[in-house]
Every structure is written in C-alpha cells, then in structure tokens.
Amino acid sequence: MIALLRCIKSDFYKLRHTSILWIHLLIPLAGAFIFLLYYHTTAKNSITDIETYLEALAIAFPLLIGLISGIVIEQEELAGNFQVMLCTSKSKCTPYLSKSILLILLGTFSITIAVGVFALGFHVLPYLFYLKAGVALIIGNIFLYILHVFISLQFGKGASTGLGVSGSLISALMLTGLGDYIWYFVPWAWSVRFCHRMFEKLNNPAFSAEIALDMQKGALIMLFALCITFVVSLFWFKKWEGRKSYE
Question: Which residues contact 142 (CB under 8 A, 6 or more apart)?
Fold first, then answer.
C-alpha cells in the first residue's frame, strides 16, 4: 500500500508541468459555465435542462477518457519504452495500478467540478440529486479507464483516442430506443443511462419501483464486469513486457 501511494504521488508529480491537470480543471469549468450562461439567457430553468447537461457530460467523457489515457501512457513510452513502469517497483502491478487510480481520481475531480459548479448555478433540484448523479457518472466511467489504460499500453494513443470517439457515439446512441434493452451490457452506456433513468424516476413516480429495479440490474452487471476486467487486467500486465515493436 505504501509503495502504491508513493507511486501515485510520483505519477502526479510527472503531470504537474503538463497540460493534463489544467485540462481536468478548465474543461469542466468551461462546460459548466457555457451551459449555465445559455440556460440563464433562455430563462427556462427546467428539469429537462439539467438532464440535457448531465447526459451531455456523460457522452463527452468517453472521448476525454480515451484522449487523456493515451497521453498519460504515451509519456511512459517516450520516457523509455515503458521501462520505468516495468522495472522500478518490486511488484510489477504497482505502476499499473498507480496509473489507473490516478486517472480515475483526475476524472472524479473533473466530474465533481462539472456537476458541482452547475449545481451551484442552477439549483432547481436538491443538491443530493446532483450528488447522486455525480456518483453515477464517476462509477460508470471506472470500467472505461481500465479499458483505455490497457488499449493505450497495448496499441497506443491513437487507438485509445479512436475508441474514445467511438465510445462517445455509442453513448449517445444508447439514449435512443436501441439502448432500452441492451444498455446493461454496453460500458459506454452506463453513465448516460444511469442519469437518464434517474430523471425518468423523478418524472414518473408511479414507475419508481420498476425503474429502480432496472437500475439495480444495470449496477450489478456493471460491478460484475468491473471486477472481472480489473482482475484480468492485472494478470495481463504481470506478463506484459512492452509492445512487440520494442521486443
């Protein structure tokens, strides 16, 4: 645990003089302020506006995850063909866990800023609702971070970014009728669908129990997939020796 904390601290220091930290601060701030400015200009102040913002946030994150994961992993490649990750710790999995945890923490920070600032400026619903939506966005993205760390290590930044673009398109598609029956099994749908179902539950109290069961089903499938993917990724990284082009 101490080695992992030290590794996370070291990885954070590597990012201090890069644009990564600023991206995680400025993009969510800009997004929140743009939506707030637009909504206050149109003077609607409706629950639908909040739903649109949170769903837009959920759709944008797969792309951001793909891009940021690719950039962070590329730093390790440029610093010495991943030798720092592969050779600097007694436990080979520690650097891998450090990178994944750091990216998840940065994503959590961004979502907290994006949702928190919007909630302060658009206080139509209770803050507890915004908190639940933020947690849904964070948990729904953890699988994607693990996936993109693997893609970035194995195939590079281009593949991770390309998958991120596709993921955002899939996320938007899952809001249509196509996603009603398959969203449980599509990782890019989890965040946006949890937010969508929260608003359906809010707008349709009579179907609250049915919607809650649907969300529980999605959550169980998501947690099962997350646990399996996490364990498999650890075993994979233990045997990974760098990209084939470097072997």
Answer: 104, 226
Task: Encode 100-135: b = buried (16+ Cβ within 10 Å), e = exposed.
Answer: bbbbbebbbebbebbbbbbbeebeeeeeebbeebbe
Rg of the chain taking only CA atoms, in angstroms: 19
Of 123, 110, 135, the closest CA to residue 29 belongs to: 110
Q: Which two tokens stand for residue 55?
A: 């769903």
| Structure confidence at residue 246 (pLDDT) | 40
For residue range 35-62, list pLDDT tens digits in order: 999 988 886 668 899 999 999 999 999 9
Alpha-carbon gap, residue 179 to 156, rounded angstroms: 30
DSSP-based three-state secondary structure for 188: helix
Q: State the Cα angle at 38 between 37 and 40, rounded to 5°.
A: 65
151, 159 Cβ separation under 8 angstroms: yes
Closest CA to 27 of 108, 103, 111, 100: 111
Distance of CA 156 to the CA centre of its chain: 19
Q: Which two tokens stand for residue 131?
A: 């908190």
**With a threshold of 0.90, does the pTM exceed it?**
yes
Q: Which residue has the higher pLDDT, 114 or 84?
A: 114
- What is the DSSP-derived secondary structure letter of residue 78? H
Residues 6+ apart with CB under 8 A from 10: 98
Return the half-sphere exposure (C-beta side, CA atoms, 13 A cut-off) of residue 179: 22
Q: Which two tokens stand for residue 230?
A: 């996490």
Q: How many of the other CB atoms lie within 10 Å of CB of 186?
A: 17
Write down the residue that tokens 């966005």 correspond to: 137
Report d(CA 35, CA 78) in Å as an integer.
37
Q: How far apart are CA 86 and CA 153, in angstroms?
A: 12
